[in-house]
Amino acid sequence: MYNRACGACHAGQLPNAPQKGDKAAWAPRLAQGMETLVQHVTQGFKAMPPRGLCMECSAEDYRVIILWMSE
Ligand code: HEC
C-alpha cells in the first residue's frame, strides 16, 4: 500500500512530506497523536490529498503504514 500510494510522495519526491525512516521529521508529527495523524491522512492535510491517494486503505492500514514510515 505504501508503494502504491504513500510512496509516490513520501520517498523524497515532495520535500515537505516526511520520508520513510526520517525519525527527526516524524517525531513532531507523531507527537500530535496517532488519531490526529490518521484523521489528517483521511481528510487531507496541506499538500497531501484526502486518503493519501489510497482509496481502499482503512484507518487501521493508515496506522500501520504511519508507524512503519516513522521507523
Ligand atoms: C500526493 C502526495 C502525498 C501522498 C500520495 C501521501 N502523502 Fe502524506 N503527506 C504529503 C505531504 C506533502 C505532507 C506534509 C504536509 C505538511 O505538513 O506540509 C504529508 C504528511 C503526512 C503525514 C503527517 C500529517 C501531520 O499531521 O503532520 C502523515 C501521517 C502522512 N502524510 C501519511 C500518509 C500516508 C499513510 C499516505 C498513504 C496512504 C500518504 N501520506 C500519502 C504528501 C502525500
Q: Briefly, what is this?
A:
The chain has a single domain, classed as Cytochrome Bc1 Complex, Chain D, domain 2 (Orthogonal Bundle). The relative contact order is 0.23.
Describe the protein.
- The protein starts with a helix and ends with a helix.
- It is mainly α.
- Helix 3 (34-43) crosses helix 4.
- 54% of the residues lie in helices and 0% in strands.
- The chain has one domain: Cytochrome c-like domain (Cytochrome Bc1 Complex, Chain D, domain 2, Orthogonal Bundle), CATH 1.10.760.10.
- The chain has helices spanning 2-10, 23-30, 34-43, 59-69.
- The model has no long low-confidence stretch (mean pLDDT 97).
- The protein binds heme C (HEC).
- Residues 5-6, 8-10, 14, 16-17, 29, 32, 37, 40-41, 45-49, 52-54, 57, 62, 65-66 line the site of heme C (HEC).
SSE layout and pairing:
Layout: H1 2-10, H2 23-30, H3 34-43, H4 59-69
Helix pairs in contact: 3-4
What are its keywords?
mainly alpha, globular, 4 helices, 0% strand, 71 residues, binds heme C, Cytochrome Bc1 Complex, Chain D, domain 2
Let me know the CATH homologous superfamily.
Cytochrome c-like domain
State the secondary-structure class: mainly alpha
Whole-angstrom Rg: 11 Å
Main β sheet profile? none
Low-confidence stretches: none
Q: Which series of helices and strands comes N to C?
A: HHHH
CATH architecture: Orthogonal Bundle
Please state the average pLDDT score. Answer: 97
Give the total of domains.
1
Overall geometric form? globular
- Percent helix, as a range, is 40-55%
Bound molecules: heme C
Binned strand content: under 5%
